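Quick one: structure for this chain?
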Amino acid sequence: MLSFYAEQRVSAKFCVKLGKFVTETYDLLKKFYGDECLPRTQVFEWFKRFKEGREEIGDDQCPGRTSTSEIDANIEKVGEIVRQNRRLSIRAVAEFINITKETVRQILHKKKVCSEMVPRLLTPEQKEIRMNICADILQNTENDPNFLENVITCNESWFFQYDPENKHQSMHWKAKESTAEQIQI
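Got it. Here's what it folds into:
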C-alpha cells in the first residue's frame, strides 16, 4: 500500500503524463487532498523531477553516515551481557561495549531484551515489620472469617507525612536561625 505522500506523487506523475501545467496540478491536489496536500514547493519539485524523466515515486536516499552501532555483533554483545548480569545499567553496558547509551537503549527496546524486575533488598528491621504485619493479618483472619472481605486493595502510591513546600516557599534561601517572616520580600 502506498503512503499518503507517495499517493500524491503518483497523482502528480499522472498529471505530468497528461501534459498538465504545474499550477494546475497543484490546484487539483489541493482540491482533492485539502489541508493534507503536499506543500506547494514539494509539488513543484516532484513535478519538475517527473518532467525530467524520473519514474520512481519513492524518497531519495538521505546522505549521511550509516549507523554502525546497531550491527549484529553489537546486538549480540548487548544480549549476551544482559543475559549474564541483568542488574547492569544501560550506562554500564554502553561503557563495556564502547557504544552510546542511546544505542544500547534502542537495542534493548527493539530486540525486547528485558531484564527481570529485582526488588530492592530489605533491611532486617523492614523484614521484621513485614513479618509482624503478616502475622497480625493471619491472626485476624483466624479470629474473624469475614476479615478479608473488609480489606481494600489498591495500587502502590506515595503518601507524604508532611506538607511539601509550594513553589513560593521553596524559592527562598533559609538560614538556620531565620524564620519565614524574616525572609519574606
